[in-house]
Write a structure and sequence with these properties.
Distance between the termini: 53 Å
Family: Belongs to the glycosyltransferase 2 family.
Transmembrane segments: 20-41, 313-336, 348-367, 387-406
CATH class of the largest domain: Alpha Beta
Helix content: 40-55%
Number of domains: 2
InterPro entries: Nucleotide-diphossugar_trans
Pfam families: Glyco_tranf_2_3
Protein name: Glycosyl transferase, family 2
Strand order of the largest sheet: 3-2-1-4-7-6-8-5
CATH topology of the largest domain: Spore Coat Polysaccharide Biosynthesis Protein SpsA, Chain A
CATH superfamily of the largest domain: Spore Coat Polysaccharide Biosynthesis Protein SpsA, Chain A
Largest sheet: 8 strands, mixed
Oligomer: single chain
Number of strands: 8
Structural class: alpha/beta
Strand content: 5-15%
Radius of gyration: 23 Å
Shape: globular
């Protein structure tokens, strides 16, 4: 029976190897990451050369800015966050901290700062999640420009001086900042530091050249209050309120920009378990947004959204192809069969993909080094990115996108105790 089962398995593996689907999947597997890497590299360098050093100055008096800081179980970090906010080099702002029924003494820490007229506290008695916390704070805001930051963020002194001038443009609804990793202890955290320069930041530069961005950063972004109220505020049931807000604004033809000079310092997950939970939510949130705006590919008026819509679809599809092809190859090699495109040793295409990935990581880190002088010290860990980290991200995407497509989201997305950016 065992030889018969073995022969049947070999026959099935050979059958897969000779299908047209396998041939096209193999090409997609190899060509897509190389092609997109060069797209991101070229467009981001174009942005860096043509737009990044453009000086923007405010005309007239500095407008009032309301800084919103939603918090849940952040007693250990919120003290440093407030201290940094009070040192902002900007003459006209307020800080509204929203304690969303934290189980710790977050509210008590904030109360120590209430003698400063710039600090106010909204102390909620029911945990309703980040989106509802922000919505509840909107009536308290005196500024037309709202800046949202996480409760574990350390802002740079000139943050508002770089973000606010963008709103002189009448069609600008939001500006996303440049979050940098400050807790670099483990290899995993160094990889995330490189990722935020070479994947997240690079893609935002490139997407700005294309005219639409995938998302503002939940860790730090500014939004025009009137535009936000026009949409009805933040959506409580979406897993990622930042992606959802970005798409809804752009669907209304508002402009969303990226300002790399608006630097903040954030904490990222320390453990693999924390990272998995964070990226699970990101994957679910993206699928929810794609589902919500599934009319984009057939709507000519939404054609400027096509690049980010299709790139999101193809990146998800590539993750599934990556996981399925790798699983197929591992099974084949385990039973002594070598299908087309696979080798137990690095082959041409494997080396091409890895080299292109590392080149993108290097260029991204090199471009962002002026905002994060220590980023190049994290680059040696980048060798693990195409081997381990890439596979981890593909697994998370393939595990959770299809369930998110069919699962009905809860009424509100409540907080979970975590460490790392929202």
């Amino acid at each position: 029976m065992i030889p018969l089962a073995y022969e049947s398995l070999l026959k099935a593996l050979r059958a897969v190897d000779h299908t047209v689907v396998y041939v096209y999947a193999l090409r997609f597997y190899g060509l897509y990451p190389i092609l997109m890497s060069w797209v991101w590299i070229s467009l981001s360098l174009f942005f860096r050369r043509r737009q990044e050093d453009t000086e923007m100055e405010m005309s007239g008096p500095a407008p009032m800015v309301s800084i919103l800081v939603p918090a849940f179980a952040e007693a250990e970090t919120i003290d440093d966050t407030i201290e940094a906010l009070l040192k902002l080099d900007y003459p006209n702002y307020e800080v509204i901290l929203v304690n969303d029924c934290s189980p710790d003494n977050t509210a008590e820490v904030v109360r120590q700062y209430l003698d400063d007229p710039r600090i106010r506290l909204l102390n909620k008695q029911v945990n309703e999640g980040k989106a509802m916390a922000l919505n509840d704070a909107l009536p308290m805001c005196r500024g037309e420009i709202l800046v949202v930051i996480d409760a574990d963020i350390i802002v740079s002194r000139d943050l508002l001086n770089y973000m606010v001038p963008h709103f002189a443009g009448t069609r600008v609804a939001a500006v996303t900042g440049n979050p940098r990793v400050r807790n670099r202890v483990s290899i995993l955290q160094h990889l995330q530091a490189v990722e935020f320069s070479s994947i997240v930041s690079m893609q935002r530069r490139a997407q700005r050249v294309l005219g639409r961005v995938l998302t503002v950063s939940g860790a730090v972004f500014a939004v025009r209050r009137s535009a936000l109220l026009e949409l009805g505020g933040f959506t409580p049931h979406m897993a990622t309120e930042d992606i959802d807000l970005t798409w809804r604004l752009q669907m209304k033809f508002w402009d969303v920009r990226y300002e790399p000079r608006a630097v903040v310092w954030m904490q990222v997950p320390l453990s693999l378990r924390e990272l998995w939970k964070q990226r699970k939510r990101w994957a679910r949130g993206l699928v929810q947004v794609l589902k919500r705006h599934r009319e984009v590919p057939t709507n000519w008026k939404m054609r400027r959204m096509w690049p980010i819509f299709y790139e999101s679809i193809f990146s998800i599809l590539w993750s599934y192809v990556f996981v399925l092809m790798t699983s197929y190859w591992l099974i084949s090699l385990a039973v002594g069969y070598a299908p087309r495109g696979v080798s137990p040793f690095p082959n041409f295409w494997g080396m091409m993909i890895a080299t292109t990935c590392l080149l993108q990581l290097f260029i991204g880190a090199w471009v962002d080094r002026q905002y994060d002088p220590g980023i190049m010290w994290s680059f040696p860990e980048a060798v693990f990115y195409p081997v381990i980290y890439w596979m981890l991200m593909a697994l998370i995407t393939s595990f959770y996108t299809i369930p998110a497509l069919f699962k009905k989201p809860p009424r509100v997305q409540t907080w979970r105790i975590r460490r790392g950016p929202a």
